[in-house]
Write a structure and sequence with these properties.
The complex is a heterodimer of chains A (about 110) and B (about 120). By secondary structure, chain A is mostly beta strands. In chain A, about 0% of the residues lie in helices and about 50% in strands. Chain A contains no helices and twelve strands. In chain A, strands 2, 5, 6, 10, 11 and 12 form a six-stranded mixed beta sheet that branches. In chain A, strands 3-9-8-7 form a four-stranded antiparallel beta sheet, with no helix packed on it. In chain A, a hairpin with a 2-residue loop joins strand 7 and strand 8. The N and C termini of chain A lie far apart (about 40 Å). The relative contact order of chain A is 0.34. The mean pLDDT of chain A is about 90. Chain B is mainly β. Helix content of chain B is about 0%, strand content about 50%. Chain B is globular, with a radius of gyration of 13 Å. Chain B starts with a strand and ends with a strand. Classes of the chains: A mainly beta (about 110), B mainly beta (about 120).
Chain lengths: ~110, ~120
C-alpha cells in the first residue's frame, strides 16, 4: 500500500542554520504530496504542496520539490528561526489511496535554539 | 474565516466509560474527516464524510466506535466503551471539495486519556 517515510527526529539546529527534512514515499499512480506543520498545542496546518512531478511547493521560506525519479519530497529552508520549532509531517494523497485520503509520515520534530 | 472547532480540548475518563467528541467544520466545507493521532505518530484516517454520507469508514473500529454527521455540518465521534489503548489525540478536518490536491483544514484536536 501507499506509505510515507520521514527521517526521525528531533532535528536540533541553531538559528539561521540550513534545514533539510527527508521524506520518501511509496505509491502507485500519481499522488499529490504535502508538508503539514504542527506547532505546540495547535492542529496541523498545510505548509506547502506539489501535485505533479518536478513541481516545487514553497511557503514561508520553506521549499520542497516533487522528485518522481527518487520518490522524494524533501523539505528545505535556508535559514531557520526559533519560531519554526514544530513537528513537520510529510503526506501524500491520491494515487491508489483515492482522493483526499491523506497518508501521513510519523512526523519530524524540529527544535531551533537562539 | 473561522477554523475547524473541536470540543472538548481534553478529556479524561475511566476505561469502559463512553466518550464523545464534537466537530464543527469550516462553513461550506462539504467533506469532513476524523483522524486518530497516537503519540509520536502521524494521523491515521478513521472516517471520511461527503456531506451526510460516510464514504470511507474502513479504518473505524465499528465494535466500539461510531460517528454521525447530521445535516452534513457538525459531526460527533463516539467511543463506547473506551479502552486504555484509545488514549490518543482525535483530530477533525474539513475540506471544500473531494479532490486529491485540495488542502485539509484541521482543528486543534481532542486529547483523550483513558485511565
Amino acid at each position: 500500500g501507499n506509505s510515507v517515510t520521514q527521517m526521525e527526529g528531533p532535528v536540533t539546529l541553531s538559528e539561521e542554520a540550513f534545514l533539510t527534512i527527508n521524506c520518501t514515499y511509496t505509491a502507485t499512480g500519481y499522488p499529490s504530496l504535502f508538508w503539514y506543520v504542527q506547532y505546540p498545542g495547535e492542529g496541523l496546518q498545510l505548509l506547502l504542496k506539489a501535485t505533479k512531478a518536478d513541481d516545487k511547493g514553497s511557503n514561508k521560506g520553506f521549499e520542497a520539490t516533487y522528485r518522481k525519479e527518487t520518490t522524494s519530497f524533501h523539505l528545505e529552508k535556508g535559514s531557520v528561526q526559533v519560531s519554526d520549532s514544530a513537528v513537520y509531517f510529510c503526506a501524500l494523497s491520491g494515487g491508489n489511496t483515492g482522493f483526499q485520503k491523506l497518508v501521513f509520515g510519523t512526523g519530524t520534530r524540529l527544535l531551533v535554539s537562539p | 474565516e473561522a477554523g475547524v472547532v473541536q470540543s472538548p480540548r481534553y478529556k479524561i475518563i475511566e476505561k469502559k466509560q463512553p466518550v464523545a467528541f464534537w466537530c464543527n467544520p469550516i462553513s461550506g466545507h462539504n467533506t469532513l474527516y476524523w483522524y486518530l493521532q497516537n503519540l509520536g505518530q502521524g494521523p491515521e484516517l478513521l472516517i471520511r464524510y461527503e456531506n451526510e454520507e460516510a464514504v470511507d469508514d474502513s479504518q473505524l473500529p465499528k465494535d466500539r466506535f461510531s460517528a454521525e454527521r447530521l445535516k452534513g455540518v457538525d459531526s460527533t465521534l463516539k467511543i463506547q466503551p473506551a479502552e486504555l489503548g484509545d488514549s490518543a489525540v482525535y483530530l477533525c478536518a474539513s475540506s471544500l471539495v473531494g479532490q486529491a490536491n485540495s488542502p485539509l483544514h484541521f482543528g486543534n484536536g481532542t486529547r483523550l486519556t483513558v485511565t
